Amino acid sequence: MVFEAESALSGPIRVVDQGDERRLVASGHTLSAIPLSGDWSRLKGEYWCRALDMVELPRRPTALFVGLGGGTQLLLLAARVRPRFMTAVERDPVILQIAQRYFDLGSLARTEILCGDIERVLPCLESAGRRFDFIMEDAAYADPVESALPIAL
Fold it and tell me: Is the pLDDT reported for residue 95 higher than 90?
């Protein structure tokens, strides 16, 4: 156990190191995993990698991530291509603080991280004329379909 905290939005949060892997766990769900050595090959079977494998990305994409967790997919995308710009929206300020402290997000160039519910942040992005080549919704994965679907749409 590297760190523990309690969040009003996400419940108990832990940062756990197991061998070469660091995981962010909230209420028993793994939100992120990163290799401490930088070798991503052990995570190739996980959905974070598989989701990026399923799309053809432009050489310099812009990307929107709804749900930051520990930033696994941002780090993976930056390792695969040279993103023009990445935006992540995380609703839980406790998750955001932990991600910045324990998951090497400071190494990401051309990245903005916004804290708030996507329903409130998206109109601001739209009114600013923001466009994205890749959008990943990863905030409502464990929610019932009736509440997750509107977020994804």
Answer: yes
Fold of 58-152: Rossmann fold (3.40.50)
111-115 and 85-90 beta bridge pairing: parallel
CB 110 within 8 A of CB 82: no
Alpha carbon distance 146, 92 (integer Å): 21
Using 50, 70 and 90 to split pLDDT, how confident is the model at 153?
Answer: low
Q: Is residue 90 a contact partner of residue 13, using CB atoms and an 8 Å limit?
A: no
Tokens of 54: 């399923």
φ, ψ of residue 99 to 5 degrees: the values are -60, -45
Which residues have C-beta within 8 Å of that of residue 30, sequence separation ≥ 6?
23, 24
User: d(Cα 120, Cα 12) in Å, to the nearest integer?
Assistant: 25
For the chain, what are the domain ranges? 58-152
In the block, which residue shows the tokens 């399923």?
Answer: 54
Residue 94 near residue 115, CB atoms below 8 Å: no
Q: Cβ distance 23 to 33 under 8 Å?
A: yes
In 27-105, which ranges are E strands? 29-35, 62-66, 85-90
